[in-house]
Design a protein that fits this description.
This protein has 489 residues and is an alpha/beta fold. It is built from 22 helices and 16 strands. The protein has a five-stranded mixed beta sheet. A five-stranded mixed beta sheet has the order 8-10-9-11-12.
Length: 489
Amino acid sequence: MTRMTVQVSRFEPDAGVSARLVPYEVEVHEGARVLHALYAIHEQDPTLAYRYCCGSGQCGSCAVRVNGKPGLACMTPVVDGDVIEPLDLPVVRDLVVDLVPRIERIAALIPGDRAELPDRETVDAMKDRCDCVECGSCISVCPAVAVSDFAGPTAMRQLERLQVDPRDAEDRVVQARDDGLFNCTSCHACYEACPKDIRIMGKAIERLRAEANRRGFTLPRHLEVSDLVRTTGRSVVRTETPLFERIDPVIEPYGPVRGEVAFFVGCMYSMRLPQTALDAIEVLRRNGIRVVVPMEQVCCGSPLIRTGQLDQLPRVMTINRKAFAPYPVVMTMCAGCGATLKNDYEDLPFRVMDINEVLTEFGIEPPAHLSVTVTYHDPCHLLRGQGISEQPRAFIRQVADLVEMPARCCGSGGGVKSGKPEVAAALGELRREAIAATGAEQVVTSCPFCEFHIAGHTDLPVRNITSLLLEAYRKKDEKEAAASTPPSN
């Protein structure tokens, strides 16, 4: 037996007292799960309210947050010091949340008069969407649910499953559209939280959006983006002189060549934030990395995939594959471009690396330390789309004092900023509040969409991590120049 202390949230709404964490000392067997700890606590204090049923990960009843992350209590190992709280949903009491309003929005199969059984291919296609245990974990972390009338990830998953089921008589694409299909920011928080690892965005929402596009339901602003890609190769209009008009195709480092990358620039860093890309190139040159920029590259296709407009996707993928085929390493700065190249392109003849991965692998010249406190915003397509979290933080800690804030979608992804600006703005305001709570003087991120969107919701400077590094290098140069200058008489 192992003795440990865990903290459990206690809350009785009718008592008029705020939720509080109560420590409990329990004895459990080695390998125990959170549910076993709750059993032991309940023996001490029968007033503790929590849900469970099967105890084997099949019913979803026991979903809670453990150290801030959703999980099934019956499947999550318990360790000393764990903090156990309810899901981030309306609390009935203690660890019990009100799932009824959300469960009611999950559609049931409506059989038609001439329903047929699905064939084997359809059954196989539906399998991964049938694993859902309706625990509410995905709903509790969904940013769109928090700020809009969005039915939620699992409701969308069910609608897509029913859409391909020949036994169902309803038009689930229309229902999805009316239930907020285009409110999803493609942040993948639902997948991260799902105990069954269901890729709801890719397996359900993107498929529903593609069918919605075929049916003529695509939002007007999303159609404009597709037209831009078709006519210009870019998903945004130029607001400054594009990066491709400012640089040479090959940019040599300042010293010996330590490595080479082919730079997939992306639409935002070329057309809206070219100075940030120039800053990144300076940092790469400083660290001995040759930068090759294939000029024929076009939009990666992410805006098309996320909004369900797939007709010209093969064309842009073919252009980019051909443009970068000669180069072993392709570097991205845009989190969305990087996630798309890594996850949506198949059998690439080159390795795709985010700039944080490139600088980590090659190592960087130590920068000067700046007297500034910053907070870091995790781009969703970098954190969840590429699994990159610690690398940018390691660079920031070399340069500035870092104050953390919760990782949360800023609202700029999934076509939401263009198609549902009110949803994007509401999420941007939540980011503003989180940033203000840190007391930081600057915001650092590593995605152009996040950089651009957050800048519209805070008075603080919002900067790319490479711009911060470049400032630190320039400060270092100034100090060294001052130290080498002989004093005047």
